Amino acid sequence: MIALDHPWVAVGQRRVFRVLLDAWARPGTVADLGEWSGGARARLAVLAGLCDAATTLHDTHGMLSDGDRSRLGARTAGVDIATFVLADGTRDPARLTPARGTLLAPERGATVVLDCQAVGEGPALRLTGPGIDGVGELRVLGIDPRWWIARSAWCAFPLGVDLILCDARRIACIPRSIAMEI
């Protein structure tokens, strides 16, 4: 029997989705998914809340088990066309080029789920844009600084990628519409 806090239970997936919506509306805020992750890292709860048979997923660094990949139901796709991209934030994103969308279909830009050491701790990022009153600050630990350079190159609103930063329990979202300074 699967516990009610497990990421594969529908009630948990709905709760994670609501938390994600709130995090998108308030970029840079830190949310805790520990209650709904069943002991797994937050990245799995995020993907369980977002993925289904209609979505595509690229697991850049092979972070998902075969069982988890199967339960997500998302079809495997190349990084350049995947709806969701899972990546290890400690690794160099040099050969990673996620979908950025087009001017006629900006919604086709990927959402990159970036696993890191800690969300809410470490060096500060300064964030400005929709959903942030003035200048916001997000602390993230364990991200290769080249990710921020890559994100800057990928995003020219409305084109770009959205980021969901995940640690063991916590998440924070940085939509493509947000300007970021290191």
Short description:
With 182 residues, the protein is α/β, with parallel strands linked by helices. It has helices at 10-25, 42-50, 66-72, 146-154; strands spanning 31-32, 56-59, 75-76, 84-88, 111-115, 118-128, 136-141, 162-166, 170-174, 179-181. It has one domain: Bacterial phosphonate metabolism protein PhnH (Rossmann fold, 3-Layer(aba) Sandwich).
Characteristic key phrases:
3-stranded antiparallel sheet; Rossmann fold; single chain; alpha/beta; 23% helix; 4 helices; 182 residues; 10 strands; 7-stranded mixed sheet; 26% strand
- H/I helix tally: 4
- Which percent range fits the helix content? 10-25%
Global morphology:
globular
Distance between the termini: 45 Å
Strand order of the largest sheet: 1-9-8-5-4-2-3
Please give the oligomerization state of what you see. single chain
How do the SSEs run, as a string of H and E? HEHEHEEEEEHEEE
- CATH architectural name: 3-Layer(aba) Sandwich
CATH class: Alpha Beta
CATH fold node name: Rossmann fold
Compute the average pLDDT: 94
CATH superfamily grouping: Bacterial phosphonate metabolism protein PhnH
Structural class: alpha/beta
How many domains in all? 1
| Poorly predicted ranges | none
What's the total count of β strands? 10
Largest sheet: 7 strands, mixed
Our Rg estimate from Cα atoms comes to 15 Å
Strand content: 25-35%
